[in-house]
Amino acid sequence: MQSIQSQSFKDFEVWIVDGNSSGEMQAYLKTLLPPFYFISEQDRGIYDAMNKGISQSKGDWLFFLGSADVFFDTDVLANVFSSIKEEHSLVSGNIRYLGNTRPFIYSKHKTIKKPIWSSMIWLWNGLHHQGTFYRKTLFSETLYNLKYKILSDYWLHLYLFKKKIPCEILEIVITTCNSDGISKKGHWKMYQEEISLKTNLSSVYLAPVFYMFSLIKYAFRKL
To answer: Model pTM greater than 0.70?
Structure first.
């Protein structure tokens, strides 16, 4: 909240999507003044909450900030919106990881993750949603797929890549992200989702290839 409030760029609204949390949190949310708004009700997971935020938003651009993540500095939004080209509807910058004390698929010594928007996205998610801005019109045809509880952001990025949506890459660090989230725990269930979403967006004949690649990544992470 503080990292949003301190932004030098002020032309935004913020929708906090709360999963019907405790009375103490409810009391805090009720103290917030515009441009901060909230809804508080049960949801069906992370991406259901994000879809609710999309439906509430009125702006031209959307950005999703996790509860454990912060903007990198006070000028992030100013720098992004002074750099966006009118013809683009997808814009992504760097993120910085903090918080994880164990190695995971990104080296713990390389805390900066840069976006990738190429065919390599079929191997791993080249965009991190905490570093990516989406023009709201992108969601006019589809929302986050609730079939995928952990990797629906990856599903969306592959979907947009298949539609040949161009992505503007910015050399700006957007957020500092906690790297202990659900997609960094390395559970096999996550890799099952990865196999499924890649297969559904390509061909069933490629499922064995996706399975082997996911198995290698899973084994690497466990080792």
So the answer is: yes
